[in-house]
Amino acid sequence: MAKYSFDQPTFRIRLWVDERPNLPSFPHVQVGGITSFAGGKGNPRHSSATIEYFRPRGGMYEYGLLGADFCVDDSDVVQVRIPASACGPSATWDASLNKFEGDIVCAFSQEYTPAIVDGIRRCDSELPCGGLLTVTAMVHSYVGSSATVFQSLAKGVVRLFSYDGTIGSVEEAKTLMD
């Protein structure tokens, strides 16, 4: 198990590998869509990965958290399951890197599903062997979250499943999301 945290004035990131952040429960979750990709050849080194990202940009900021589990099977296909939240209240999370009060939402937003799928598609050659990749956590903000942020988070999560070293700098952590 590993948790990495990098906090600089212009970039904050936390990564959880084979463990999960202590998030509130996600209310009103229903099964969302399933997308399939060709599986790779290698076995994942990790079964769970989560990335939280916060970056101030002038008077604005970018923010998001995405987590997923990977369960290996005997197929040569990776199925991606992304839940969706139905209407209803969403929980907040006080431990977030985003400290703008009242802005954090712990819920699976269908708004970001296409961006997550696109992020996985952009690094599908890095997917491990066949199995089920299930998005298990999503935290976003009303102001700083965007499709671009969740596309980058999805790429980072996919890469974390096969990451075989320790992350020693914020630059290494950033490259996961590039």
Give a quick account of the main beta sheet: strands, pairing sense, barrel closure.
Answer: 8 strands, mixed
The coarse silhouette is: globular
Average predicted local confidence, pLDDT: 85
Estimated structural class: alpha+beta
Rg, rounded, reads 15 Å
Strand coverage percent: 35-45%
Distance between the termini: 24 Å
Number of strands: 10
> Element order, helices and strands?
EEEEEEEEEHEHH
* Helix proportion: 10-25%
| Uncertain parts | none
**How many distinct helices?**
3
Attribute tags:
single chain, alpha+beta, 8-stranded mixed β-sheet, two-stranded antiparallel sheet, 19% helix, globular
Strands, helices and their partners?
Elements (H helix, E strand, L loop, with lengths): L1 E7 L2 E7 L11 E2 L3 E5 L9 E10 L2 E13 L4 E5 L2 E2 L18 E3 L6 H10 L8 E11 L5 H16 L7 H8 L1
Parallel strand pairs: 7-10
Antiparallel strand pairs: 1-2, 2-5, 3-8, 4-7, 5-6, 6-10, 9-10
Helix pairs in contact: 1-2, 2-3
Description:
Helix content is 19%, strand content 37%. It is α+β, with helices and mostly antiparallel strands. The strands form two sheets. Strands 1, 2, 4, 5, 6, 7, 9 and 10 form an eight-stranded mixed beta sheet that branches. A two-stranded antiparallel ribbon has the order 3-8. A hairpin with a 2-residue loop joins strand 5 and strand 6 (60-72). The radius of gyration is 15 Å and the shape is globular. The relative contact order is 0.26. The model has no long low-confidence stretch (mean pLDDT 85).
